[in-house]
Design a protein that fits this description.
The protein is about 35% helix and about 20% strand. The protein contains eight helices and eight strands; from the N terminus they run E-H-E-H-E-H-E-H-H-E-E-H-E-H-E-H. Strands 1-2-3-4-5-6-7-8 form an eight-stranded parallel beta barrel, surrounded by four helices. Helix 2 links the parallel strand 2 and strand 3. Helix 1 packs parallel to helix 2. The relative contact order is 0.16. The mean pLDDT is about 95. Bound molecules: 2-phosphoglycolic acid. The site of 2-phosphoglycolic acid has 13 residues, from strand 8.
Length: about 220
């Protein structure tokens, strides 16, 4: 049985109170440990300490990640959060999301440095690519294929095309172990992707903000 990664990307949403309520809802609905599924919440930096403390106290099968990481180590880099700092609270980091590439002009060289810093500190990068031709830096094992037209649009890629692209990504990058699909994934359509032989899970934005929907995404995958 393949291992599925179900990853929430909260983007720039949620106060501490909203994050607490989300976790409480998840705890009450009884998300159980599932040997074949890994649930990960990639939250704003400000929420990671709180989320980690909550999950430890209530014992929930959820891991955490950031949505970005500094390309530098510690030093005089005002405003940056290093991989080492993130590692205190999380095990994963999204790198190269198309919103970072678009709004913050992140390019292959910068993203390669981010991957290197993440790996040095023991964070697993969730490396986002928009198609099968996007460069994937050395050391990346977990990738998310997210076609730009599908992000936040309500119009996902077809499961057939996602399967085709993801299969090609794996063929071109033999060291990549898992490739997820992302873009307008909902509880109603997640299974059409995760049942495809090459697709190893989903990266979910909008639908993951609702705890009930996140539960359903994990259950239906
Ligand atoms: P979406 O976002 O699920 O809201 O389309 C996905 C993403 O940006 O990772």
């Amino acid at each position: 049985m393949k291992k599925l990664f179900i990853i929430a990307n909260w983007k720039s949403y949620k106060t501490t109170q909203e994050a607490n309520e989300w976790m409480q809802h998840l705890a009450e609905s009884g998300l159980h440990q599932m040997p074949d599924k890994v649930a990960i919440v990639c939250a704003p930096y400000t929420l990671l300490p709180l989320l980690k403390a909550y999950a430890a106290e209530v014992v929930m099968p959820v891991s955490f990640g950031s949505q970005d990481v500094s390309p530098f180590g510690e030093g005089a880099y005002t405003g940056e959060i290093t991989a080492g700092e993130i590692k205190e609270f999380a095990d994963y980091t999204i790198i190269g999301h198309s919103e970072r590439r678009k709004y913050f002009k992140e390019d292959d060289e910068l993203l390669t440095n981010k991957v290197a810093r993440a790996l040095e500190s023991g964070l697993t990068p969730v490396y986002c690519v928009q198609d099968e031709n996007t460069m994937i830096p050395e050391g990346v094992t977990l990738v998310a294929y997210e076609p730009i037209f599908a992000i936040g649009s309500g119009t996902p890629d077809s499961p057939e095309n996602a399967e085709k692209v993801i299969k090609t990504i794996k063929e071109k990058n033999p060291k990549v172990e898992s490739v997820l699909y992302g873009g307008s994934v909902k509880p109603e359509n997640i299974h059409t992707f995760t049942q495809s032989p090459s697709i190893d899970g989903a990266l979910i934005g909008g639908a993951s903000l609702d705890a009930q929907k996140f539960m359903q995404l994990v259950e239906n995958s």
